[in-house]
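Q: Give me the 3D complex with NAP.
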Amino acid sequence: MTAPVGDLEYGWLARARDLALRARGRTGPNPMVGAVVVRDGRVVGEGWHEGAGTLHAEPVALRAAGDAARGATLVCTLEPCSHHGRTPPCAEAVIAAGVARVVVGCLDPLERGRGQGVRVLAAAGIEVAVAGGEEAEACRALNAPFLTWALTGRPLVTLKLATSLDGRVATATGETRWISGPAARALVHRWRADSDAVAVGIGTALADDPMLTARDLEGPVRQPARVVFDSLARLPLTSALVRSAGQVPLVVLVGEAAPADRVAALAAAGAQVVAAPGPGGRVGVDAGLDALGAREVQSLFLEGGPGLAAAFLAARAVDRVEWVVAPVIIGGDAAPGAVGGPGLGPLAEVPRLAGATVTRVGEDVLVSGRLRPPPDAGG
Ligand SMILES: NC(=O)c1ccc[n+]([C@@H]2O[C@H](COP(=O)([O-])OP(=O)(O)OC[C@H]3O[C@@H](n4cnc5c(N)ncnc54)[C@H](OP(=O)(O)O)[C@@H]3O)[C@@H](O)[C@H]2O)c1
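A: Here is the predicted complex, encoded as structure tokens.
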């Protein structure tokens, strides 16, 4: 049993969430966490986690508070850890600081089966309160990729596509650049920077020769790993992806029929070639996601094309959709639509976005929504 969370404490939780966001896109494979130490109704220490290998948010905030932490309330967006990872357990630091009460925004699934942060704190005589309602949901949303990965071992998948008004992703002659406008393209770079990995199918890699890096952004940027679903290891050694493999990680997922010499050549050129066999000799969506999850990829930004988008949608492996619709009409029977394959079933069963929002981005329209409910870590 945990204590209720007070109204003022919900306000401090919101502040802790803002702090957590200061390291947005840079904490993977760790979650974004913020913490606030409050004493006699006044904030006496604040902190956030800057990324793997650096101090967690709680000890940063406790250090900032110093002696004032004794008898104070610690408000943190995520359950404090109770295990030795890259840094010592936060629960120990919280106990040592003499904190009287801890307010937690959401529970950490990785704590189940370990010491369980909340239990360790309670056993040390600290009053623990776990948030509910909208603030708890907001704390879970902050770390949806981390929670998805912790609960399933796979990354949270966001499918992004950019189409004409008539749903095409290329002209009949194969032209693709650019359907969306500069504002939407800038947004894509932000999304890439916020993701652990960006993926395309080999069709897109061959047609567009993309870099898939995050560019032209302000502030520190952590480049996502680039992933290509390439059953037969056809990715050319001369491609922009392979040529930049020394600077930004490149993962080539291959099927069981990938020729050994092609695999060896890609590996020699610096790509990480990973077998992820699926049905029909192709890379399996599930096998690919398992392989990426095993590499601590918690968020996958899937940029198509139509073949891979269809496979992910058919496998019900897409969590979120970011769909840019540009005010152009391409036409032509041979111009590819955004989602290929045989179709996604009878109309009553096709994927339908939940909680869809519509935003104007420059001249384009962005439709965002969920295809799977957000992860529920309990609490
Ligand atoms: N506007 C947009 O948002 C957008 C985004 C991306 C691409 N595009 C355009 O789309 C076109 C390329 O279309 P595409 O459909 O060929 O590209 P794609 O979806 O990027 O690649 C499809 C290929 O991925 C490989 N693949 C590996 N595992 C797979 C699996 N489980 N299921 C399905 N495919 C798998 C297959 O080749 P193997 O079997 O050989 O592995 C397949 O042919 C280009 O013109 C590109 O510019 C547009």
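A quick observation: The mean pLDDT is 94.
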